[in-house]
Amino acid sequence: MTPGWITTTLLDNDTPGGWAVARSREGFLHDTNGPLFPREWLKRQDLSVFAEHGIGHLDGEPVYLLELNAAAEVPGCSWQSLRGFMLQGDHTLYKVLGYAAQIGTWAREHRFCGSCGQAMVQVPRERAMYCQACDLRSYPRISPSMIVLVTRGDEILLARSPRFVTGVYSTLAGFAEPGESAEDCLIREVREEVQVEVKNIQYMGSQCWPFPHSMMLGFHAEYAGGDIVPQADEIEDAQWFNIHDLPPLPASRSIARYLIDLYLARRLGHAEPVLPG
């Protein structure tokens, strides 16, 4: 866990004080000092709050999330996306906001019971929403997915989706289906996306990816056969790239970039990178 930031469910919303972040579909509210505000001051602003959750402690101080129905104008403040904060320098702050974003998404998507449609209530001191009619508790969703760098000696297989920033190529990835292991998912996704077979699968690490609630399981795998045929409507382009001549790559804080940089370091005898938290 990042020093200074500890997640917890044991925060009472009736207790005054602490810090708070405000989140809407436009992102997080922030000013020149960042997205953390004195909680009591933030709650006095003209904000349409539909859920409040204690999310943890930062340097010993409690932190709360105010999940909003809509963005609002606050003098001296503006809204910024979570991806924008990811690209900035304060990694601890990004961890706080990433966790807040996942809790906010869960709170927004579980206002009503998925079984009977009745309104759900927040369970005190537990990260759960409760339907009394069904006696059903709903917990934050985590969606496991695999991400893999396929290698062939001094070449790595990179692809780009139409959703990517122009010119950027990345590793292959996909969500696990019911009944699949992470390795089964990897083999299927690589086969579906580029019609390539792989072998010698090695697990390299994982990363929380709060866009909106993924757990990325990272792997290296070696090429075993097949010619690249990009999946229609999913992969815009896919190619083998020599490690000495690479295209624009994903952001440095992503596990995709870590998998690439780790392979390059091992291939070239450089110092290995640290997996982003």
Automatic annotation (TrEMBL):
Gene3D superfamilies linked to this entry: 3.90.79.20, Nucleoside Triphosphate Pyrophosphohydrolase
What InterPro entries does the annotation carry?
A: NAD-cap_RNA_hydrolase_NudC, NADH_PPase-like_N, NudC-like_C, NUDIX_hydrolase-like_dom_sf, NUDIX_hydrolase_dom, RNA_Hydrolase_NudC, Znr_NADH_PPase
Q: What does this protein do?
A: mRNA decapping enzyme that specifically removes the nicotinamide adenine dinucleotide (NAD) cap from a subset of mRNAs by hydrolyzing the diphosphate linkage to produce nicotinamide mononucleotide (NMN) and 5' monophosphate mRNA. The NAD-cap is present at the 5'-end of some mRNAs and stabilizes RNA against 5'-processing. Has preference for mRNAs with a 5'-end purine. Catalyzes the hydrolysis of a broad range of dinucleotide pyrophosphates.
Question: What does the entry's cofactor note say about binding and number?
Answer: Binds 1 zinc ion per subunit.
The species this protein was found in: Pseudomonas trivialis
Q: How does it assemble?
A: Homodimer.
Q: What is its EC number?
A: 3.6.1.-, 3.6.1.22
- Tell me the superkingdom of the source: Bacteria
**Sequence positions that bind substrate:** R83, E126, Y139, Q207, C208, W209, P210, F211, P212, H213, S214, A256
Biological process according to GO: NAD+ catabolic process; NADP+ catabolic process
The short sequence motif called Nudix box sits at 174-195
| GO MF annotations in UniProt | magnesium ion binding; manganese ion binding; NAD+ diphosphatase activity; NADH pyrophosphatase activity; RNA NAD-cap (NMN-forming) hydrolase activity; zinc ion binding
Residue span, Nudix hydrolase domain:
140-263
Q: What is this protein called?
A: NAD-capped RNA hydrolase NudC
- Any idea which positions bind a divalent metal cation 2? E189
Show the catalytic activity: a 5'-end NAD(+)-phospho-ribonucleoside in mRNA + H2O = a 5'-end phospho-adenosine-phospho-ribonucleoside in mRNA + beta-nicotinamide D-ribonucleotide + 2 H(+); NADH + H2O = reduced beta-nicotinamide D-ribonucleotide + AMP + 2 H(+); NAD(+) + H2O = beta-nicotinamide D-ribonucleotide + AMP + 2 H(+)
Q: What do the Gene Ontology cellular component annotations say?
A: cytosol
UniProt cofactor(s): Zn(2+); Mg(2+); Mn(2+)
List the NCBIfam families. Answer: PRK00241.1 (NF001299)
Residues reported to bind a divalent metal cation 3: E189, E193, E234
